[in-house]
Amino acid sequence: MTRSDRVALITGASSGIGEALARAFVADGHRVVLQARSTDRLAALADELGAGRAVAVPGDVTVFDDQQRAAATAIEAFGRLDVAVANAGGGTGGGFLDPDPEPEVWRAMVLTNVYGVALTARAVLPHLVDSTGQLVLMGSVAGRVTIDGSLYSATKWAVTGMAHAIRAELHRTGVRVTVVQPGKVVTPFFEGDPPPDCLETDDVVAAVRYAVTQPPSVDVNEIVLRPIDQYR
After folding, report:
1. Left (φ > 0), alpha (ψ -120 to 50) or beta: where does 44 sit?
2. Separation of alpha carbons 20 and 208, rounded Å
3. Which of 114, 133, 139, 147 is nearest to 17 (CA)?
4. pLDDT digits (tens, 9 = 90+) for 152-206
5. End-to-end CA distance of the chain
6. What interhelical angle do 116-131 and 151-169 show, nearest 10?
7. 136 beta partners
C-alpha cells in the first residue's frame, strides 16, 4: 500500500500540532479526517487541504458518539483508517495548594487529556485492527518527570500508562502504538508569548512522521523530544 492510500484521523486538528500534522500528512499523500470543536477553523483547514483529501468532522473528544462518528466518517469517506492521532488536549497551571482553585477548569482538562484520549482509542481501534494500522497518543515530557503540584503532569502520566496498556492489549494484532512526548512547544497552549526555549510544531510533526513511516515490523513505542535548553 502506498502512502496515498493511507487514511489518518487527527483530533485537535484545528490549531497547533494537530493543524500542522494535518498539512504534513496531506503533503505526504495521506487523506485525513479532521476533528476539533472549532467548527469554523476546522472547515477552513479542510477547504485548504482540498476536497477528496480532507474531511472535517466537528466534535468533542469527551463525547463517545462524536468519536465513533469521526471513525465512521473515515470508513465512509475513504474506505479505511490506517493512522489515528489522539492529539486533542489542554492544560492549566496552579498547584494543589493554590488558594484560588478552578475545579471546573481541572475537570475539563482531565476529561480532555485522559477520558478523551481513551474514548478516541476505543472508537478507532477496531478499524486499526482491520487495517493493521497505528495509534499515536500525544503525551508530554510532563508525563515522564515530576512537576510539583501539576495536575496537568498527572494527566500526561496517564497517557503514558494508557499507551503501554493499549499496546499490551493489542499484542499480536499487528497494530502499532506510539506515544510522542514533547517538551515545551510553541502552540496555543501558552497564553501570550511562549517561553523562548520551545520546540516548534514542525519538530513534533517530524517525530510523528518518523513513527508512522517505519516498516510494519517496527513499533516505535515512545519518542521523547525536548528543546536543547530544557533539561527535564
Report:
1. alpha
2. 11
3. 139
4. 999 999 999 999 999 999 999 999 999 999 999 986 655 556 667 889 999 999 9
5. 40
6. 20
7. 85, 178
**CA dist., res. 213 & res. 103, Å (int):** 41
Q: Catalytic annotation on 231?
A: no
Spatial separation of the C-alpha atoms in residues 81 and 74, rounded to whole Å: 6
Question: Which residues lie below 8 Å from residue 189, measured CB to CB, with a gap of 6+?
Answer: 16, 90, 91
CA distance 102 to 28: 42
Burial of 193 (0-12, 13-18, 19+ CB in 10 A): exposed
- Which domains occur in the chain, in start order? 3-225 (3.40.50.720)
Tens-place pLDDT, residues 55-88: 999 999 999 999 999 999 999 999 999 999 999 9
Alpha-carbon distance of 5 to 81, in angstroms, equals 10
Reference 87, options 144, 195, 15, 30; nearest CA is 15
